[in-house]
Amino acid sequence: MKVDTIVLGAGIVGISVALHLQKAGRSTLLVDRRGPGEETSYGNAGLIQREGVYPYGFPHDFGALFRYAMNNTIDASYHWSAIPKLAPFLFSYWMHSRASQHEAIAHKYAKLIEHCVTEHDVLAQEAGATELLRRKGWMKVFRTEKERDERLAEAARWKRDFDVNYRALDMATLKAEEPHLDHASLIGGLHWTDPVTVIDPLGLSKSYVALFEKHGGKLAIGDAATLVQSGAGWTVTLADGTKAEAKDVVVALGPWADVLTNKLGYRLPLAVKRGYHMHYKPQGNAVLNHPVLDTERGYFLAPMQQGIRLTTGAEFADRDAPKTPVQLARAEPIAKTLFPLGERLDAEPWLGRRPCTPDMMPIIGPAPKHKGLWFSFGHAHHGLTLAAVTGRMVAEMVTGQKVFVDPAPFAPSRFV
């Protein structure tokens, strides 16, 4: 089988890359070992984070560091056995999270973020999937004045520097908009109004795949590790033994990218943050109108078609280590006091893996050592948020068009 381009990895980023390539007139094959959108892209919090101009950094205040060191929080956990391997990455991540560097990163990163909603809107409209999008934004709720005041001051700076919009919520407003929260434990909130939320992330992925196929794109099951350079292009062996050939190949393997990039001679500083979720049926007539972050406790509640999705923070562990959903166990009883969650709807906790870089920015662009090889991974917490933006950027680079966002800050060459 010969095509113009092969995209390896059918998460939301790979799907968006393949879709944009096919729309640009490139015959494209999308290859994954599983069905589209069934790994990391399935289990996110469903946010297209227009406000997310600052990628998630590592805390520098002593109190937070001490709290994480105790390894008993909801928002962060780690496996002791993984720390020696992760230590160089974590140190580099911590250094990039210093205030001055984090601010400089944000001003580059914001160029991606500012297009996240508009680019998804285009694809969702074409795919007939706008019913999966909600334009209510999302909320942080606060238990302490200190946290409230710091986060509202931060929001004011982000409004000034990046024109992202928010509302400060007093208790009367919070009660009116989220009547089923436990208001006795809260003192107010912050409502980010620009973000769009997705009530079925897997459904959105599938709708984009359907659009890709409508434009003539093809799907196949295969192992990305079989990729080899072949003449002036690339060849990958599919599950049925067929060999697919293309001039260009895009690596969009998310947390598994290093399996292939290491084989090709790249030593990119990639690590994985793991996370868990569980769905619940609301008790009685309780309704959650917005996704809500319990800021001081570090878990997230999102209304989905499947139920109320409870998601946890980051778990630092080997990518393929067995599940250890201790953060979910810590979060569940607290979440049930904030909102009346009923029975669990999933047979077991879901585990996902987020691909991360130490400078908190994705790796997007041509591989420095190989012609026709392109990278598109490392989006960390913003895979869904930045998928449509990234897809358009990669397609424009591969087809030689002017790229609508300057790709230089995200180039793979910064690590080579």
Entry keywords:
416 residues, FAD/NAD(P)-binding domain
Question: Can you describe this structure in just a few lines?
Answer:
The chain has 416 residues and is an alpha+beta fold. The protein is 33% helix and 25% strand. InterPro entries: FAD-dep_OxRdtase, FAD/NAD-bd_sf.
General description of the model:
This is Amino acid dehydrogenase. Helix content is 33%, strand content 25%. The chain is α+β, with helices and mostly antiparallel strands and 416 residues long. The chain has a domain at 1-60 and 98-134 and 195-269 and 357-415: FAD/NAD(P)-binding domain (3-Layer(bba) Sandwich), CATH 3.50.50. Strands 4, 6, 7, 8, 14, 15, 16, 17, 18, 19 and 20 form an eleven-stranded mixed β-sheet that branches. Helix 5 (116-127) crosses helix 8 (201-214). The longest helix is centred in the middle third of the chain and has 18 residues, at 145-162. It is globular, with a radius of gyration of 21 Å.
- Per CATH, the superfamily of the domain at 1-60 and 98-134 and 195-269 and 357-415 is FAD/NAD(P)-binding domain
- Structural class, from helix and strand content? alpha+beta
Indicate the CATH architecture of the domain at 1-60 and 98-134 and 195-269 and 357-415.
Answer: 3-Layer(bba) Sandwich
- Major beta-sheet overview: 11 strands, mixed
Proportion in helices? 25-40%
User: What's the CATH C level of the domain at 1-60 and 98-134 and 195-269 and 357-415?
Assistant: Alpha Beta
Query: Termini separation (Å)?
Result: 33 Å
Give the count of helical stretches: 11
Give the integer mean of the pLDDT values. 96
Described by the principal axes of the CA atoms, the overall outline is globular
* Number of DSSP E strands: 22
What portion of the residues fall into strands of 2 or more residues? 25-35%
Q: If you compute it from the alpha carbons, what radius of gyration comes out, rounded to the nearest whole angstrom?
A: 21 Å
- Remind me, CATH topology of the domain at 1-60 and 98-134 and 195-269 and 357-415? FAD/NAD(P)-binding domain
Low-confidence segments, given as residue ranges, are none
